[in-house]
């Protein structure tokens, strides 16, 4: 069975699609069989592509960027092994959607996986500039080694055969 991870931010056009594309590539480079996607706690941008600045930041760093925004649905808790919130507000929103302790246990903050993080929140770059989007990219990349280690621990069979 494939291990499944989703990233969740507010509108699913900045942070979570950036995390999706970055983490997908790093997991593939590690040879891990993990499905990765993303969504938002709100559906304001459903169907829209990622913010153009997210796309630009991803492309500058050599990542893919194809995306259509969608809203996280509580019935999806059963689809995922790990649900990664990009900030504490998303974490709180997701926990309020969860119906059981098992569903709540799947929810983590991305920066929990970065031992050098100065905050658990990945700040929203939407009202910022290019530097803010680059900062978000770097924060996501800094958390990936810890996230990969956690995935290996949670699902040893996630490693490729």
TrEMBL record:
* Swiss-Prot/TrEMBL keywords: Hydrolase, Protein phosphatase
Tree of life domain:
Bacteria
Record-annotated membrane-spanning stretches = none
Q: Indicate the secretion signal residues.
A: none
**Annotated Pfam families:** LMWPc (PF01451)
The UniProt GO MF terms for this protein read: protein tyrosine phosphatase activity
Q: Which family does it belong to?
A: Belongs to the low molecular weight phosphotyrosine protein phosphatase family.
Q: State what protein this is by name.
A: protein-tyrosine-phosphatase
From the broadest rank down, the organism's phylogenetic lineage runs: Bacteria, Bacillati, Actinomycetota, Actinomycetes, Streptosporangiales
